[in-house]
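Worked example

This section walks through a single chain of length 265. The input is the sequence exactly as stored; nothing has been trimmed or padded.
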Amino acid sequence: MIYQRNMVTTWNHKQLAFYHFTQAGIFERLKMASANDPVLYYHYAEQQFANMALAYRYKAMTDRKMNTYTTDVGGKGQQKQVVSLNRSLLNSLQGGGYILYSRHGEATVGVDQPNLNFQDCTTQRNLSDEGRRQAVVYGETFRRLRIPFMFPVQASPFCRTIETAALAFGKENVQVDPFGYDIYKLSGNISHAEQTRILNSLRFVLETQPPIGSNMVIIAHSFPTGVGLGQIPNMGTVVVKPSGRGNGYEVVTKVSLEELSSLGE
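Given that input, the structure is written out below as tokens.
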């Protein structure tokens, strides 16, 4: 315990992030080696989960500090502004009334096969180990920051989006929304009429207000640049404020997983 206390006071955030990422990797290997022992498996999985959460928090703190130093000569004023904005956004999300549209976690390199079958994950790109860790941290962030959300969580019909939602919120709390496939098609070669139809449907979705005191979570895909909600990083989130069907919506901000995780700092 003394060693850990000294480590926290002498290591910088970047070193701490690296340390916990390394620890998470160790517990991942221990977990997989104990697959036949449920007690050990879940013990190591819990340790891996805790280390990944800490790693992303320290990484977010490092990134935020670097951004502060490179964008503001005074430093402290900008840092206070960032903290204030983070607190304001967190307070808003805790009050509910938003749609949180998130891209799935990191997927394996490759492309979805021409014989794409939603019932056969081998015909699709799937989450990498990093993507699965991102999904776990995403769900943990909602619970840690006490951001309310409505059930079920909506997920595109691809294996990578369903798995992301299931790892974050539990598979029993996930509902597959076929419209996610339409969003996916926006990045392909489709007609102008088809694109217009999909974007009109998207507007209908993003105008829908969630129940009072709650937020709607959608796990789906990124968009082409300049189309819909634009490009979104792996496990990134677009915060949307719906005004009601027929009344439009406002894109409040776009945050990475690290930025979302750091809102409580």
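What to look for: The chain is about 50% helix and 10% strand.
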